[in-house]
Every structure is written in structure tokens, then in C-alpha cells.
Amino acid sequence: MAEGDVTLDTSDVDKWIGKPVIFAEFWDPCNATDIRRWVQAMDYANPLHWDEQFARASKFGGIVAPQSFTVAMDYGHGCHPSCVGKIPGSHLIFAGEEWWFYGTPVRPGDKLTQERSFAGYKIAETGFAGPTMFADGDTVHRNQHGALVAKERATSIRYLVEEAAKRKVYDKGNVPPKLWSRSELEEVARVRLEWIKSSRSGVSPRWDAVSVGDALPRRVIGPHSRVTFALECRAHKQNIWGTWRWNVPEGVYDPATEDAGFADDMTYDFEARKIDPRHGDGLFHGPSSGHINAEKGEKVGMGGVYGYGSSMNAWHLDTVAYWAGHDGYVWHSKTQFRSPAFEGDVTYVDATVVDKRETSEFGMPVVTVETRMTTQEGPTILKGTATVSLPR
User: Fold this and answer.
1) SS3 readout for 170-198
2) Locate the FAS1-like dehydratase domain: which residues (predicted)?
3) Which range among 216-225, 256-265, 359-368 shows the weakest confidence by mean pLDDT?
4) Dihedral sign, Cα of residue 190, residue 195, residue 196, residue 201
């Protein structure tokens, strides 16, 4: 390292490119309450996913999971295969997700298994932390019958904590979370309820009736708090005590428990978790604990308590799927995260139809919906697209 320069040491990362990594699976199939817990944490009030009577009367005949739930059936919030190898003095945040879905719904009683691999990385200079690694990890999800459910490519950002803390891009330490007035909260509640009512029946818009430029109903999520972030964490099955196991094939080395170069108070103690499960649940210890611990969040350059990338991607998917209704389906989705959701903020989700095709690689007419998430102050924190089939 030359004086005045900042460099990332990626020498330990290179050996994992293209290799299968992170062998873990859940002991148990999912149940209806797992699905309900997920949509409750994501504030996704689609009755198809929580109301037994409504769901039984639908074409699905019972509770069915939203497509966003797939990530909750995975170890590592989807991003773990993008974080292998040691980078001294580093930390990780989520940068985005790309999903391909294959028409197989997840229902209570299903158990998903995963094949994970590290796809590679690039280094880019960022204002956030100087030289920054953008790393990709792939996960293929299949159910207990071997049917292909989804594929995810997760992109993580690995950066030097000291440099991020010095630059203070997210300098929330000196800015307390917003306090909302009664009238402001009433307006948030009004917009939220309007969105819930907009597609509650599940009737899909007809492809012929949809036009480029059509706006979807506006959605609002929040205000975000340590409580809402904790609920989101607990909605992932992996963060409930004792739900998963390592399943490393014989003769295969898995880097999952290797030192990634994180600070001592941001790593897991895999021996301690055998006695005290708090060491493995993501809230009290480990690299995710900064999400609800302001001191840790500030220490890793995030300026305080902040939300989960997997939740933001779910808000994107759920918003589009809700509009698409029971006869619609999201085949492909891609999101880029520009900032996390911070404590005290609300997130507005606005979406617009930006493309319409008679023929597609999915064998049916589709539309493309673009989403944008902003805070109450206006900055964009996520941009995404989703390719959706609709009935004629």
C-alpha cells in the first residue's frame, strides 16, 4: 500500500470465483405461518398470503407465498455467495438483486434447497469508500420435487470500514431520526391504506388495456424503526434459532465460516452459537447486527441504524406482483440499491409501465414495470424493473 493510496486486498477472494460455496439448508419445510410472518414484516397486506378464508376461495385454493418469499427460504438473505474470501478491515452491504422465476409457486409444506456459487467481482472507485468491490453470487432454488423455483444473482459491496467512516457519506450520527407529526403520520396511513385497497381483490389488469406510461398506485412503507428492522430480520427463517444446518458434501471445502476480514465485534462466533443462539440470529452479533445497533452502524460507515437490502427488493417485487393480481406473474426482476432505508424515514414506492411486448422470451405477452423508491425528502434509494405477464 503506497502512502496516500487506499487499496483493497482481494488476493484471498480470487480462488473462489466460479466455485460452489455456502452449503446450508433448513431442517423443516415452510408452513403458512412462515409466509404470514414474512408478509407481516414486509407490510404486504395481500390477503392471498395471510387470510386463510380469502386464499381458499381464490384460484390457488389456499395460502401461497409471494414470489419475494423465496429469499426467506435461503441462508444468508440471498447475498452470502457474494461474500467469500478475506478482505482485511472490510465490511459488506447489499448492492442489488436480479431474479429469474420459473412459474413454480412456493406453498406451505414446500422445502427449498439451494446451489450457490461465487460468480466474480469488479473493483470501482466510489465516493462512499474509495476502492470498492462489487461482487456477484448466484443461487439456484429448487423445491423438494426438484422443480426449478428461481435463480438469484446477488451483488454485494465490500469496502474498507476505515475509509467509509472517514468519508461519512451517510453521516447520520449528528442527525437524529425524523420525528413525525400526527398530521404527517395520518397522511402516511392514508396513502398506505389506499394502496392496500387498490388490488385487494386480486383482479389482474388486462394486457390489452395496459399502456406504456401507466402509473401504478403509490405505496408507502414506514416510518422505519429498530422494531420494524428487527421484524424484517426475524422474518427470515435462518434468523430463528436452530432452523438450519450445514450440508457440506463430503470432500468439499466450504468457506462459509472463514474470517471475511470484518471487525471483531461484527463477526460470528460459531462455537459460542452452539450454546447461546443469540450468537447466530443476526440481531445481537455478526455482520448484520449494525442494522439495529446505532454505534455499530456508525462504525461501519452507515451513520446509524439502517434497513436490509433484501427487504427493499421484496418491497419492489411485492408492489409489482400486487398490481399484477392473481393471474399476473413476475418472470424477471432487477434492482439496484443506492442507499439503505434509515431509521425514522419512510419509503415511497412509485412504479410506471415502461415497455409492452406482444412476444417475449417467456412465451407470452409481457409488460415491463419500472419502480423507484424515495424517502420523504426526495432522494432515490432504489431503482428496479420487473417483467410481468398479464392475461389478455
Assistant:
1) CCCCCCCCCCCCHHHHHHHHHHHHHHHHH
2) 24-151
3) 256-265
4) positive
**pLDDT reading at 117 higher than 50:** yes
Q: Please, what is the average pLDDT of the chain?
A: 94
Q: Cα(125)–Cα(122) distance, rounded to whole angstroms? A: 10
CA separation for the pair 199, 43 (Å, rounded) = 15
Give the integer Cα–Cα distance in Å for 274 and 253. 21
Residue pLDDT, tens place only, 181-212: 999 999 999 999 999 999 999 999 999 999 99
For 148-174, b/e burial (b = at least 16 CB within 10 A) is ebbbbbbbbbbbbbebbbeeeebebee
> Is 3's pLDDT higher than 50?
no
**Would you tell me how many other CB atoms lie within 10 Å of the CB of residue 355?**
12
Sheet holding 148-160, edge to edge: 113-126, 130-142, 148-160, 90-101, 329-337, 380-389, 366-375, 347-357, 219-221
Helix (H) or strand (E) holding 296: helix 294-299
**DSSP line for 19-56:** -B---EEESS---HHHHHHHHHHTT---GGGT-HHHHH
pTM over 0.85: yes
Alpha carbon 378 to its chain centroid, in Å, reads: 22
DSSP 240: S
